[in-house]
Design a protein that fits this description.
The complex is a heterodimer of chains A (406) and B (518). By secondary structure, chain A is of the alpha/beta class. Chain A has three domains: 3-86, 2-Layer Sandwich (Ribosomal Protein S5, domain 2), CATH 3.30.230; 115-337, TIM Barrel (Alpha-Beta Barrel); 341-403, no CATH class. Helix content of chain A is 43%, strand content 18%. Chain A is built from 15 helices and 14 strands. Chain A has helices spanning 39-57, 73-86, 124-127, 151-164, 179-189, 205-219, 234-238, 240-244, 257-264, 276-289, 304-317, 328-337, 341-359, 374-389, 397-403; strands spanning 3-8, 18-24, 30-36, 62-68, 115-120, 137-141, 171-175, 196-199, 226-231, 252-255, 292-297, 321-324, 365-367, 370-372. In chain A, the strands form three sheets. An eight-stranded parallel β-barrel of chain A has the order 5-6-7-8-9-10-11-12, surrounded by four helices. In chain A, strands 1-2-4-3 form a four-stranded mixed beta sheet, covered by helices on one side. In chain A, helix 1 (39-57) crosses helix 2 and helix 11 packs parallel to helix 12 (328-337). Chain A is elongated. Chain B is of the alpha/beta class. Chain B has 15 helices and 29 strands. Chain B has a ten-stranded mixed beta sheet with strand order 5-14-13-10-6-7-8-9-28-29. Classes of the chains: A alpha/beta (406), B alpha/beta (518).
């Protein structure tokens, strides 16, 4: 019986990917048939990668065909590994590309998560430059963006991407699948310094605890991997607080309205009245648990004004971030979550008054004749941070403000 | 075949003889001094032309026969119909029927619709091409299958070569959207309206014989007479000169590619931050995805800062037309029109003006418009660490693109190459370009999605943008980053000794040779 496996993509519209077919054999060594649009410039390199990958996997005898549309090494390695595994071969060890410098940098719980850019987990073309757009986070999506038949291949691609992609300072996120496929996702990606996992369609605290325990088994109790459960059903919305407080690793609670509106049997409207309760429930559940409330995506990538309105509404409801499905949405989202000019003016005045009071060792902060409460100070500090992050305030604003005559 | 070659001022080995005629190696920017007088066609007399002014003949074949079409002649055509041209191919079909060999085709550019001429190159009807060699024509030439050597010239270089007599056009065939029986012609009316006919102007003035072919004949006078009937020998009326759908698009679409949009945004922000965007400035923008998006970003910034341009140069699109209509520019100086809104505006708006390679780009004239443009945004296939750039071949050495107005635009005040840092896995920033089409000393800025590199010669730009917040970085850094992503520098393409084509500079000297791809 010949054992065959195929993986990847082919066709004239495919770019930065390749199609690999493997036929295992008992003898004859490795026979490579390579067709590449970059053969003249990278043919030697590609042959080296094919050979080294098969060797790492433990394949000694096989016919391998590669149709290459300019795939980077790590993409081709993932495709070869997927094809070999699909051929039923028990690999000796995974073929991991080298780690990119800086990939082990940690994240922190309290960083901003205003924007998170979704990138389909089986499409290398869109991943490669994902880190250039200044999003607070980049999500490699193994769930809805990947067809069930290619989950296995996407998992390896995402694993390799985590080692090789330049995230450009964005938080490293992966959206995993539910159930058993989700556990397989974790097994591949957890060793690759994932900062935060998006757990979809969460309806109970137990689901989150199960994910957390699975991570603990792999990485230890203080694993440091953050979780962002996504509420996408009436049941999930009902249990928002329990889900948000299910484990200390939960850092944020997000809502996904496509599935939620379907679940309660209504149309999703631009106005969003049908989801007001659920969104508020998520905001309050998250706040009660001390985690960040994060809004759904805005799905019309052509409608920037609609997006802007949607962000302002999200901000007004209490959300701190929004999903992005196109890089051009990121700036609009950041601008929307940033305070406006009046807010910035007030916030900077409060921060300066607070710092002055601290310097003088005063317990009570006042601005003019008004006393300022600690929560107000906290909000002002946050507003200033957001304004600086959105480019509405320069990092050196203190010097500029204090230089001005009163 | 022994080939004479020499190393030119940019260190490139170039042929000193092309198709049996001597060629001058590039001597440096602004170094070559032309001499002598302009070329001129033979003197004609009105007594040989009908007093009625009706120069119509029944068919293109008859017109070509009357022009004395014979072996070895040079045929000029223009590319205003782009991929919808139905005339140029007919010339060579007729020549084949007549048993004629060894013609030289000198188009102002070629498009995929012209690929069928490969059969005429194989059979010997066409000896070689002097113009642009794109797609399959480029691959044919690169493979060393063309009988003669190709010559690649810029739009301005084509005018210069025709004017100076380097490129003698025996018969210029001008497909015209509108014409009268006398031969006056323009591009603003008729089913194949393409806006203007500037690329045919040199042929009309300097060719020995000129044929106008139209599918929209008006009684004399056809105005405006961009092509003057006084230069025309014969007029041929046909059913269709072009396929309107392929000549201009109904609408020009802006790119949706996030990478290209990011590049375009960086370009616009650079132009604003460097102080170039100021009242009365000018810019050049083409219809390519990135250039178009750049114009749209720039427009928003101009509106915000209440800045108006004096003129915009370039192929016009609805986006430039809107800027004219909204008062964001006083003029559009249009070299070729890309969409229907551009054609309408060219026809109806007095400040949407046609230009020609003579006014815009001819280097052997008393100045040209290209030098007066404050900022030109261009593409390239490769650029090296010395800012030299390539537009005609890819890194594999295969001819794929024409030069267009690219070389001419390098004389603008600030020349920006807007490029992806790599395509698939092929780096665009390289150690040394495969084919050198533009000297680095004329290229000021390279803008990619991964950063902006300013030519160290432009200390003024470096200073002006120091605190702009833009990702400005040394080109060597960017090159290293790209190589770390794509898996190191590419292998050298395997090229033969034989020169299959030469790239001319705007002054007619040879800036690089193109070798056979093995």
């Amino acid at each position: 019986m010949t054992q065959k496996g195929e993986a990847g993509a082919r066709g004239k519209d495919v770019r930065s990917d390749c199609y690999v077919s493997v036929e295992l054999a008992a003898t004859g060594g490795i026979q490579v048939e390579l067709q590449s649009k970059v053969a003249g410039l990278y043919g030697n390199r590609i042959r080296e990668v094919i050979g080294a990958t098969l060797k790492t996997l433990g394949v000694d005898h096989a016919k391998i065909g590669v149709e290459d549309q300019g795939a980077l090494d790590w993409v081709m390695m993932a495709r070869i590994e997927a094809a070999v595994r699909r051929a039923g071969f028990e690999i000796k060890q995974p073929a991991l590309p080298p780690e990119r410098a800086g990939m082990r940098a940690p994240t922190s719980r309290d960083r901003m998560r205003r924007s998170r850019l979704y990138l389909p987990g089986n499409n290398p073309k869109v991943m490669i430059n994902g880190g250039l757009y200044g999003g607070d986070a980049m999500i490699l999506d193994l769930e809805d963006a990947v067809a069930p038949s290619v989950k296995d291949a996407a998992r390896l691609l995402v694993r390799n991407a985590l080692r090789q992609l330049d995230f450009g300072g964005a938080e490293r996120m992966v959206r995993i699948n539910q159930g058993e496929p989700g556990r397989q996702d974790l097994d591949e990606i957890l060793p690759q310094n994932v900062h935060c996992l998006l757990v979809p369609k969460v309806e109970s605290a137990d689901q989150i605890r199960a994910v957390d325990e699975h991570i603990a088994k792999r990485l230890g109790k203080d694993h440091g991997v953050l979780l962002m459960p996504i509420i996408e059903s009436a049941r999930g919305a009902w249990h928002a607080f329990e889900i948000a407080s299910a484990a200390p690793s939960v850092v944020a609670l997000a809502i996904g309205l496509e599935d939620y509106t379907a679940d309660i049997g209504v149309q999703r409207t631009l106005e969003g009245r049908e989801s007001f309760w659920a969104r508020s429930q998520v905001v309050n559940g998250a706040r009660a648990a001390g985690v960040q409330p994060i809004d759904t995506v805005f799905s019309d990538v052509g409608d920037m004004e609609g997006l802007r309105q949607s962000v302002l509404e999200a901000k007004a409801l209490g959300f701190e971030g929004k999903g992005c499905i196109h890089p051009r949405q990121i700036k609009v989202v950041h601008d929307g979550f940033a305070p406006d000019a009046a807010e910035i003016k007030k916030a900077t005045a409060i921060v300066l008054a607070f710092e002055e009071a601290q310097a003088k060792g005063l317990g009570v902060i006042s601005l003019g004749t008004k006393m300022i409460d600690p929560p107000v100070v906290k909000r002002a500090i946050k507003s200033v941070e957001l304004a600086v992050a959105a480019g509405k305030l320069t990092p050196g604003w203190r010097a500029e403000q204090t230089a001005k005559p009163a | 075949m022994s080939q004479k070659s020499e190393v030119n001022a940019l260190g490139r080995s170039v042929p000193t003889e092309i198709n049996g005629r001597p060629a001058v190696p590039f001597q440096g920017v602004n170094k070559f001094r032309p001499s002598g007088a302009k070329h001129a066609p033979p003197i004609r007399t009105c007594s040989d032309y009908p007093e009625s002014g009706d120069k119509r003949v029944p068919s293109l074949r008859e017109a070509l026969e009357r022009c004395g079409l014979r072996d070895g002649m040079v045929i000029g055509t223009h590319h205003h119909f782009r991929n919808g041209d139905l005339v140029a191919n007919q010339i060579f079909d007729i020549a084949a029927e007549m048993g004629i060999k060894d013609l030289v085709w000198a188009p102002s550019a070629s498009f995929p619709c012209h690929d069928v001429n490969i059969k005429h190159m194989e059979s010997g009807v066409i000896h070689h091409i002097e113009g642009s060699m794109n797609g399959p024509l480029g691959r044919f030439c690169s493979a060393g299958k063309m009988r003669g050597q190709g010559i690649l010239r810029s739009h301005g270089g084509r005018w210069q070569a025709i004017q100076d007599g380097d490129l003698h056009i025996d018969i210029g065939v001008i497909a015209a959207p509108t014409a009268d029986p006398f031969g006056n012609a323009n591009g603003v009316r008729g089913p194949s309206a393409c806006g203007l006919l500037g690329f045919a102007l040199a042929d009309s003035i300097y060719a020995d014989h000129v044929v106008v072919v139209t599918d929209h004949l008006e009684p004399f006078p056809c105005v405006p007479w961009e092509i003057q009937g006084n230069n025309v020998d014969y007029v041929v009326e046909v059913d269709q000169v072009g396929d309107p759908k392929k000549i201009v698009s109904g609408t020009t679409e802006v790119t949706k590619s996030p990478d290209r949009l990011l590049i375009a945004e960086y370009v616009a922000r650079f132009v604003a931050a460097s102080g170039i965007m100021k009242e009365g400035f000018s810019f050049q923008a083409g219809a390519g995805g990135t250039a178009l998006a750049f114009a749209i970003f720039l427009k928003e910034m101009m509106k915000e800062k209440k800045i108006k341009a004096r003129f915009i140069r370039g192929g016009s699109t609805k986006y430039l037309v809107e800027m004219l209509q909204e008062g964001l520019t006083d003029f559009i100086l249009d070299g070729q029109t890309f969409d229907l809104k551009g054609v309408e505006s060219m026809r109806d708006h007095p400040h949407h003006v046609n230009t020609s390679p003579f006014t815009s780009y001819n280097f052997h004239g008393k100045g040209d418009f290209a030098t007066m443009v404050d900022v030109a945004v261009l593409g390239a296939t490769e650029v090296d660490v010395d800012f030299n750039a390539n537009v005609v071949t890819h890194s594999d050495g295969v001819l794929l693109h024409g030069i267009g107005g690219w070389q001419n635009c390098l004389y603008g005040g600030c020349v920006i190459l807007a490029l992806p840092a790599f395509r698939d896995r092929i780096p665009v920033i390289v150690d040394r370009v495969t084919t050198l089409c533009g000297p680095g000393e004329l290229i000021d800025v390279v803008i990619t999605e991964r950063g902006i590199c300013i030519n160290p010669r432009r200390e003024d730009l470096i200073e002006a943008t120091r605190n702009s917040g833009l990702p400005i970085r040394p080109i060597a850094d960017l090159k290293a980053e790209v190589e770390s992503i794509v898996g190191g520098p590419p292998q050298k393409p395997s090229l033969g000794e034989k020169f299959v084509a030469a790239v001319k500079w705007v002054d007619g000297t040879v800036i690089d040779g193109v070798r056979q791809v093995l």
